[in-house]
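Lecture 7 notes: from sequence to structure.
We start with the chain below.
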Amino acid sequence: MGILSNIFHKIFPSSHPAAQNSSQAAPGAQQRAPQPTQPPAQQPAQQPQAAPAASTPAAAPMQQVDVEAVLNNMQQQSGQQLNWRTSIVDLLKLLGLDSSLQARKELAAELNYSGDTNDSASMNIWLHRQVMNKLAANGGKVPADLKD
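Predicted structure tokens for the same chain:
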């Protein structure tokens, strides 16, 4: 995931599973693609090996990252008055990411937005909520009022 993984990398430390998983998502997909061409006898041996690896990161999200504290700290250091709590544009700016309409449309596509991307106000509200939900789902401690 392009933009969402960039958001994860800016908020989560590099050792956090969410940052590691988002950076390994594309290479992992490429590594799995050749597997169907291998003889079936090798596949069962590889699948059980993948299961323990998948269960190891599942335990790691218990190490939560306080998203609010991270973003407040970033805002203090930036000296900018950005309303990251309600604005996806300000959140992206705070993270040093592209906040253009085109970038937000790309993020909407990544997150499977089904609404009208030309209605940027509705899309922006939805995007902010979804990003906060994704952060919470991946080990971020997000204030309840910022997620579903």
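Points to note: The two ends are 21 Å apart (CA to CA). Helices lie at 2-11, 17-32, 42-59, 67-78, 88-94, 101-110, 120-137.
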